[in-house]
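seq as requested:
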Amino acid sequence: MRSIRVLVILAALLSVLGGLKWAACVPASNADPCTDIHVVFARGTSGSPGLSRVGQSFVDTLRTQIGNRTMSVYAVDYPGSLDFGPSTTAGAQDALAHIEQTVQACPSTKIVLGGYSQGADVVGLLTAPTGTAWGDPSPLPPDVADHVAASSFSGIRHASSAAAH
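struct tokens:
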């Protein structure tokens, strides 16, 4: 069942990405520091800093589907603690700052947001107009949100944030 859910999420993601125009890969010696796709992923509660097993699986699966397009990855830097409100707020603020910096430096890069469990709430704070019960919203400004090609939520998200999407 989990494999089917991941495939459904990836199929939806790829349908969005498939319609986009992408630049050809550039040889490493002349490489542009910007990539075609930039994944921003927030791990679940109590996970070790970094992508986590779920995030790495998401990235690995997406990488097999993007052909010659280039991809970079950012693991949201946040506590992922049981103190949900401050933890998700910190994650949303870190992700927002990183996404804004990426969009400014690489305006052609398409952003893919991903989150698992508490990380899904972090992404929800970026994408939901009213936020969730866990944390303060940090909505993406419209000019930044226009660079987001897709978002993927997995695991249990707080009910009020799920209703907002």
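Residues 1-29, 159-165 have pLDDT under 50 and may be disordered.
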